[in-house]
Amino acid sequence: MASRKSKDTEKSAEREQRRSVESDAIESWYIAVALLGAGAERLEADTKRKFVDRIIRLSAIILEDWTRESADVNYSEIRDKLCNDEQAITDIAKSDSEADIAEAKRTLSALVDVLEYALVSQPFRTIVNTICEEARDKVLAESVINTNVDGTLERLIRNIWLADLDSSVGVKGLIETIKSLPNARFLRITLAAHLISRVFWRHSDKTNRLSLLGVAQQSLKIAGLQYDKDKLQRLIERESD
């Protein structure tokens, strides 16, 4: 018993140390992104390229570690406990009939699915949205173009950033990177959601918006999914008129 407690204590200490290191990495990463965004007009080209290179590489490291940690949560255990919690079931069931109880359990299970998607996708959403938002000065496009990176994840981050800065030079590379990705619905849905969100909340240029919508559609299409692009395109057309 004492040995088990000692091992649990050690594991807990290791987790806390790991979280501390990850927290420091995220803090340093965010400061670098913010500084690059703030100094985009004044920094020398070589300095900007160094910033871009390090930001992309650190982004990939943080994203992998953070996503793995979020995915390691025992969502099945959470689902089992919630779906067997009589109080929770009673609180949302319309009545105590078998049909309503079963429907309440399905709702609770679906809520855990939403929780899992939100937590596992949070690292990707946070990383790419922060970069695109905090370092969005178009003058950075040249530095991003001239920064060579290795690795699929690094190329994906780089090309998302570039397409957001200037779709005319970034969309082609982003589509090529998307085609090389594993046929994973989770990643493609999360990427498409990011692009559509940027289109409707942060971009105003009609050409850029339509180009990014096209990339979102391409991301989903490869995985056998689709959304009503025509409807969204009509909304953009009306807003531009």
Give me a quick take on this structure.
This protein has 241 residues and is mainly alpha-helical.
Descriptive notes:
The protein is mainly α. It has one domain. The chain has helices at residues 2-38, 45-71, 75-83, 86-92, 98-134, 141-145, 152-165, 167-180, 185-201, 206-222, 229-240. The protein is globular and about 65 Å long. The relative contact order is 0.08.
Spell out the key features of this protein.
241 residues, mainly alpha, globular
Number of strands: 0
> Strand-and-helix sequence, N→C?
HHHHHHHHHHH
Main beta-sheet annotation: none
Number of helices: 11
CA radius of gyration is: 22 Å
Proportion of residues in helical segments: over 70%
Report the β-strand fraction as a percent range.
under 5%
Ranges where pLDDT stays below 50 over 5 or more residues in a row are none
Structurally, the number of domains stands at 1
- Overall geometry: globular
> What distance lies between the first and last C-alpha atoms, to the nearest angstrom?
72 Å
**pLDDT average, as an integer?**
91
Indicate the structural class.
mainly alpha
